[in-house]
Design a protein that fits this description.
Helix content is 40%, strand content 20%. The protein has three domains: 74 residues, no CATH class; 135 residues, no CATH class; 95 residues, no CATH class. Strand 8 and strand 9 form a beta hairpin. Helix 9 runs antiparallel to helix 10. The chain contains eleven helices and 13 strands. This is DUF4261 domain-containing protein.
Length: 324
């Protein structure tokens, strides 16, 4: 661990700024080779760790990690270039005829963007298809109540960067809990395709109440917003890590059976969210969920399968697990 007497290299200007400028000049996204070329020609100065930390705090974000620049550049790319779409949380709640009148004061107090809609016959099926398969919380009684709803509420967050994700996702989690307490029946996150019962969502909001307890905080947010494992074209993958400011996770179905994929995704997500500083985990590193489970090589790749303006699209990419 570096002491303040040691010196650390710092890009001046920040590598992220140089990459953003290069992309704007080019007019299209940089390739991996172009990102590495910018890095290799950038200027570093040596600073005390405390001075480097002060510089990071003043700019408001951690610079791109040079040893992992291709993957880590995508943490900041959309934010700094304006090219593409940052994540946005869209929550869908259903309730009775009195739900709008009870929910509106809460929404106005919190300053959230929202829209009410009348009864929608598609809701029961939509909630059923979005019920979290790993640990379902919506019971037959919940589905019966959803089918009898009289009003629908959509709540929108602003678009947000990776560094803003913890605050925005916690705010929407807490807001959802208050709205459910105001006679809402159930909650569905349209930005990741996961639905929860009122009791489960409120329990997760309580769990994520204190950001200083990192394990509880991130576990609550992960369980609230991330759907996994979703199967498509020979892969299992997650959807919703972009709402927490991180890449999603993906592996081939013949490499990790569903039970193994569940354990692997959860363990790796908790590692990224709770323990790993921005940019420290590099493409090509290996990971195992436990000493008793296989070790995988992990490579960064762009998110595919969704349009860039789709709520499910992850601008931060995906971590793919392959055979070690």
């Amino acid at each position: 661990m570096a002491t303040d007497n040691a010196l650390v290299p710092v890009f001046v200007p920040p590598l992220a700024t140089l990459l953003a400028h290069a992309e704007k000049l080019k007019g299209t996204p940089l390739t991996e080779a172009e990102v590495e070329r910018v890095r290799d020609h950038a200027i570093c100065v040596m600073m005390r760790p405390s001075a480097a930390d002060d510089m990071t705090a003043s700019r408001g974000y951690c610079d791109v990690e040079p040893e992992n620049c291709w993957a880590d550049w995508h943490r900041l790319r959309v934010e700094l270039t304006g090219n593409g779409y940052l994540p946005k949380i869209l929550l869908c709640l259903v309730g009775g005829a009195d739900f709008p009148a009870k929910a509106q004061p809460i929404l106005d107090e919190l300053g959230l963007q929202y829209e009410f809609a009348p009864r929608d016959e598609r809701m029961a099926k939509a909630f059923e298809s979005s019920s979290f398969r790993v640990s379902p919380t919506l019971k037959p009684a919940d589905f019966a109540r959803i089918a009898q709803h009289e009003s629908v509420l959509y709540v929108f967050s602003k678009n947000f960067s990776a560094r803003e994700a913890p605050n925005v996702s916690q705010k929407l989690l807490q807001a959802g809990a208050r709205l459910l307490d105001a006679t809402g029946f159930a909650m569905k996150c349209e930005s990741s395709g996961i639905a929860h019962s009122s009791a489960r969502w409120q329990a997760l909001a309580k769990q994520a109440d204190d950001p200083s307890d990192r394990a509880e905080f991130w576990t609550g947010l992960f369980d609230a917003f991330v759907a996994y494992p979703i199967q498509s074209k020979g892969d299992f993958y997650s959807c919703g890590m972009h709402l927490l400011g991180k890449p999603d996770l993906i592996t081939a179905t013949d490499l990790a059976p569903v039970k193994d994929a569940v354990e692997l995704f959860r363990a790796f997500a908790m590692y990224l969210l709770v323990e790993c500083p921005d940019g420290e985990f590099a493409s090509g590193h290996t990971f195992s969920a436990s000493a008793a489970t296989p070790r995988y090589r992990v490579a960064w790749e762009p998110c595919t399968g969704y349009d860039e303006d789709d709520f499910f699209f992850n601008p931060f990419g995906r971590w793919r697990f392959t055979a070690s």
